[in-house]
């Protein structure tokens, strides 16, 4: 069962994502409410995929992503950035620190679910995209 870390400081967004993903019952879900907790849980839980908000207390999503991708033990974890920061410069920064996908808030829960399924089913066969 794939393990997904939901890292976002907004409890309502974590709840929405959990409700969307729990409908399928095929994922183990872990939560983090700030950047430091996201980094810690990445190291201890070894998720297959991380849904990472950009603007969080402690470390930003950009910092968390960069640290994960620079660590040989965690560099292969797929990261989907979820953010309200949708300018091209933000997407470029996200890609420069190693994010695999970028989804701008607000997003459709179905779109998120389909992206997660596609990524996990085709892990290693997908090219990086920006939504």
What's a concise summary of this model?
With 131 residues, the protein is an alpha/beta fold.
CATH architecture: 3-Layer(aba) Sandwich
Helical segment count:
5
Report the strand count.
Answer: 6
In the sheet with the most strands, the strands line up as: 2-1-3-4-5-6
Order of helices and strands: EHEHEHEHEHE
Total domains, how many? 1
Instruction: Work out the radius of gyration.
Output: 13 Å
Stretches with pLDDT under 50, minimum 5 residues: 124-131
CATH superfamily: Response regulator
- CATH domain class: Alpha Beta
Assign an overall shape. globular
- Major beta sheet summary: 6 strands, parallel
Sequence-ordered SSE layout with sheet pairings:
Blueprint: E1 3-7, H1 11-22, E2 28-32, H2 35-45, E3 49-53, H3 61-70, E4 78-83, H4 88-96, E5 101-104, H5 109-121, E6 129-130
Parallel strand pairs: 1-2, 1-3, 3-4, 4-5, 5-6
Q: How would you describe the overall organization of this protein?
A:
The chain starts with a strand and ends with a strand. Strands 2-1-3-4-5-6 form a six-stranded parallel sheet, sandwiched between helices. The protein is globular and about 30 Å long. The protein has a single domain (3-130), classed as Response regulator (Rossmann fold), CATH 3.40.50.2300. It has helices at residues 11-22, 35-45, 61-70, 88-96, 109-121, and strands spanning 3-7, 28-32, 49-53, 78-83, 101-104, 129-130. 31% of the residues are buried. With 131 residues, it is α/β, with parallel strands linked by helices. The chain contains five helices and six strands.
């Amino acid at each position: 069962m794939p393990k997904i870390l939901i890292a976002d400081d907004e409890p309502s967004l974590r709840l929405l994502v959990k409700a969307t993903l729990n409908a399928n019952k095929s994922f183990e879900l872990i939560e983090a409410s700030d950047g430091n907790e996201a980094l810690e849980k990445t190291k201890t839980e070894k998720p297959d995929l991380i849904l990472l908000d950009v603007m969080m207390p402690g470390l930003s999503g950009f910092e968390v992503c960069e640290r994960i991708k620079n660590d040989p033990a965690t560099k292969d974890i797929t990261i989907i950035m979820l953010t309200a920061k949708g300018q091209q410069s933000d997407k470029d920064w996200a890609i420069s620190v190693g994010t695999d996908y970028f989804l701008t808030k607000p997003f459709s829960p179905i779109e998120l679910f389909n992206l997660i399924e596609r990524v996990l089913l085709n892990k290693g066969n997908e090219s990086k995209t920006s939504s």
